[in-house]
What we know:
Shape: globular
Structural class: mainly alpha
Radius of gyration: 21 Å
Order of helices and strands: HHHHHHHHHHHHHH
Amino acid sequence: MATILPSSKKAMDTAPSRSARPDDLRVLATLGVVLIHVTAPAVEAFGLLSPLNWSIAGGLGSIARPAVPLFFMLSGMLLIPKVQEPWVFLRRRTSRVLMPFLFWSLVYLMLQPSHEAQSFPARVLGSLVEGASYHLWFVNVLLGAYLALPIIGPWARSVGHTGLKYFLVIWGLALVLGSLKADQWFVRAEAGLFTGYLGYLVLGYYLSILPVERLRWRWIGWSLLLAGTSLTFAGTAWLSHQQGTFCDDLFQYTTPNVAIGAVGLLMLLRADLLPNLDRWPTARQVMTECSYGVYLVHILVLVVLGQIGLTWRTIHPLVGIPLTTSACFVLSVLIVRAIRMLPHGDKFVG
Length: 350
């Protein structure tokens, strides 16, 4: 990788603009993840629900799909500009991620039914590799991104706009080919650098250093967000209708339609074209500090809410989905906030 770092090229100004609103972005992405998991059971029940009810859940789920890419784009936006030695960077970042991950993995593991054929250490090891809950895959991917950042960061800062655009064009092509099930060339050519979530980190950094033109970004951002959401929803409905069951091909996070929506959303946020939390700075600070913990705990909260009858089905999807999402988000913040107030609680809960 060092061979592609042009020493003669002057490094770009790498400080992202404060108008990128990273705290608002983090809160929005966290809320979006909760919405994804609230709507998921309904979306996956294609063919079992009325077309109207599925469309409501599918539409809201499609709007929320960019939430996970936004987390990776935020990491690229905030972490790539930082100049640190690799081991210093990894020690600081992984220490903030690993301990809460281990804590909540054990919580989820203890709540699962035990298998007598497996010893507890074997269950723990398996949960760390495969995830003690289905949403914990994100942490493993994030840790993998952290391993690459000490290499990608210096490259991204020094390669210039042309080099960044070259990388993003190839990465975008890989997303398109992947959605068409035609990305085997990248596998055979061992061009994995241009595939997967790593591109979102570079994309987030690139968008953070572009000069904002509010009028231009307004129509580009809204166009991309609407196009990405429409492709996700309409494409998923059509593919599911063709197969007679739910098809999640276009619901994957590494698809061009979800990436387009994420770009549009980040552009709108960076240009201050969406509502923000400036009127509630204390609430924003609390939600931002608790965002990682909310991600880790919210599935447990959803399970408890479901046991008391609060789900996407409550009254009507138009009521149940926003009500369940709001209740889960608020309760998750309160739980994480309460644990963080305990001595050393922030190190365990996230």
